[in-house]
Design a protein that fits this description.
With 288 residues, the protein is α+β, with helices and mostly antiparallel strands. The protein has 5 helices and 12 strands. Strands 1-2-4-5-6-3-9-12-11-10-8-7 form a 12-stranded antiparallel β-sheet. The longest helix has 13 residues.
Length: 288
């Protein structure tokens, strides 16, 4: 991953404002996916929502549905509905469209940061013993060591602007984690705006990267394996505090349940100091 990739990510997560509530984002391209990458929708729609709220408000939760895959490479229009502007909370609904077809729906809630009583979960039991991210083979280099490659080559080689160092996965040296989890360090691969709204959108973009894979791990498959169909259905993300993705963070992802052709996975995002800064859940349609 390169600084040039970060510039592309910044542009991706900075949709053009057409009117007060209409934004236009660039389409996805060169990522090996037949349709739009789900994180692309999540990041751009959240950025559009941010474009309609005061700078002092920060996103604390979002919930989204993936409706259609869309046409890669073509612009995506985001229309924001102002649901509520209260003294503390502001709620927005964002619809992503191409040629008047709804591709994606997101609801997000923004609030002013307040102080108060705190409780938090403990980090993973081996957190203090995790390998330093800089000591781990970079994502692209790691996956290209495998023949055949476990994911599409275009996806592996894409310069997303995010530096991923995989700790546990079927394609990692340490193998899959406990409870068949996929775990990795991540951060931006270069300089980025000192803007908490951008960093939140970047995290939303990243949370769709491999959560679906954990539901295929028990079947020794990935989403590109022959005879495998896998697509995101809905996604929930909670921000427990503002995040700066210029710093390393640790993502721990686990499968929760798979039944009736659908599966649900959970993800947790930890700072290097062991603080839980975000958590997310995704439901996936998959057929084998």
């Amino acid at each position: 991953m390169t600084a040039k990739g970060v510039d592309k990510l910044v542009a991706l997560l900075s949709p053009e404002q057409i009117s007060d509530t209409h934004f236009r984002g660039m389409g996805s391209a060169d990522d090996g996916a037949e349709a739009t990458y789900g994180g692309h929708f999540l990041g751009q729609a959240l950025a559009a929502g941010f474009g309609t709220v005061d700078d002092e408000r920060h996103v604390h939760s979002l919930h989204a549905y993936f409706v259609r895959g869309g046409d890669p490479g073509k612009p995506i229009d985001y229309f924001v509905d102002v649901i509520r502007d209260g003294r503390t909370f502001a709620i927005r609904r964002v619809s992503a469209k191409q040629q008047d077809k709804i591709l994606f729906e997101l609801s997000a809630s923004f609030c002013k940061i307040e102080s108060g009583a705190e409780i938090t979960a403990d980090p993973p039991s081996d957190f203090s013993r995790l390998p330093a991210p800089e000591s781990i083979t970079p994502y692209t280099e790691l996956l290209m060591q495998h023949q055949p490659m476990p994911l599409p080559e275009d996806w592996i080689k894409r310069d997303s602007g995010i530096d991923i160092r995989v700790v546990n996965a079927p394609w990692a040296a340490a193998g899959i984690g406990e409870q068949q989890s996929i775990r990795s360090w991540f951060k931006l691969a270069g300089e980025a705006p000192d803007n908490p709204h951008f960093h939140a959108a970047a995290l939303a973009y990243q949370t769709d990267e491999s959560l679906a894979d954990i539901l295929l791990v028990p079947f020794n498959r990935t989403w590109c394996s022959p005879g495998t169909f896998c697509v995101s259905l809905d996604h929930g993300l909670w921000f427990h505090e503002p995040i700066d993705v210029s710093n390393w963070h640790f993502i721990d992802q686990k499968a929760l349940v798979a039944k009736n052709g659908r599966g649900v996975g959970n993800g947790y995002v930890w700072s290097m100091e062991g603080r839980l800064v975000a958590s997310f859940t995704q439901e996936v349609l998959f057929r084998i």
